[in-house]
Specification:
Pectate Lyase C-like, mainly beta, 10-stranded parallel β-sheet, 296 residues, single chain
Length: 296
């Protein structure tokens, strides 16, 4: 009986040690350990960190595990993920992923596309793509301190994505080729998001556009010199638009269309330039929006 107890204890210790070793997060370095980022992802375990050194990686990567992907500037700039004008440069399909410190470019889809939840996308350069950063059916992500410029379509886009934080990004000069695109677009059932501290200047269409989405907060942003409105709210209710600077846009500084029960307070909306689609440009313009939209 004593032998059996000792044998059982040895097995338990062996299993415990094995599980402990497996559960420890590893760090993988590209190109030292793997020359291709996707190979590093494929061989990583959830919880691992992948460091990617400066270089150009012509790939369409899919982050399908909970990983930290971090670009390391070794002196010649951030590592470049070049999509080769085929699909997305970086696609995040697993929950709890961090993407930090990359230059994502030349994609026919999005520079960074997120279709999962609770991710962190920060400190990246996303330019020269069809679209910049795109969230679809995704919740509770943080998109922060990214430079999202010179994309053909929208800079940062949310579709059916709620509870996200979009903060401290620069989304400028997007949608110049496709002039119906915005710097930041919050669309169709993307509710209760926080859009704060962003700069959305000189985009082909609107600086920040919200359409068919409720309960969002738009605060402390700068949206100047855009092809149409600085901030647009359409078919959207219960929105707080507060302390934004919207100057010298070709449309109105802030416009509400078919939107009710919103709160617009403490904004600087001035120097709109001309007439768009038959209505005069103004600092703040309400069209088919009820009086319960509060303006202070």
């Amino acid at each position: 009986m004593l032998f059996w107890n000792c044998y059982t204890s040895i097995i338990f210790v062996q299993v415990f040690v094995t599980l402990t070793v497996v559960s420890q997060a590893a760090t993988i370095t590209v190109p030292d350990d793997y020359p291709v980022i996707q190979w590093a992802i494929d061989n990583a375990y959830p919880g691992d960190t992948i460091l990617v050194r400066t270089g150009t990686y012509i790939e369409n990567i899919d982050v399908n595990k909970q990983l930290i992907l971090k670009g390391v500037d070794t002196g010649a700039g951030l590592p470049v993920v070049d999509g080769g004008w085929s699909g997305n440069a970086i696609r995040v399909s697993a929950n709890g992923v961090t993407i930090e410190g990359f230059n994502a470019r030349n994609s026919s889809g999005a520079g960074i596309r997120v279709i999962s939840n609770n991710n962190m996308i920060k400190n990246n350069i996303v330019s020269n793509n069809q679209h910049g950063i795109d969230l679809s059916n995704s919740v509770y992500n943080t998109i922060s301190n990214n430079n999202v410029n010179l994309n053909n379509g929208v800079g940062i886009s949310l579709f059916n994505s709620s509870g996200n934080t979009i903060s401290g990004n620069i989304a400028g000069s997007n949608g110049i080729i496709q002039t119906e695109e915005n710097g930041i677009g919050i669309n169709q059932n993307s509710n209760n998001n926080l859009i704060t501290g962003n700069i959305a200047n000189s985009n082909g269409n609107k600086g920040i556009g919200i359409d068919g989405a409720n309960g969002n907060t738009v605060s402390d942003n700068i949206a100047n010199y855009n092809g149409r409105e600085g901030i647009y709210l359409g078919h959207s209710d219960f929105t707080l638009i507060r302390n934004n600077s919207v100057k010298s846009n070709r449309g109105s500084g802030i416009i509400l269309q078919f939107s009710n029960n919103n709160n617009i307070t403490g904004n600087n909306a001035s120097n709109s330039l001309n007439y768009i689609e038959g209505y005069p440009s103004a600092g703040i313009h309400l069209e088919n929006s009820n009086i319960r939209s509060r303006i202070l």
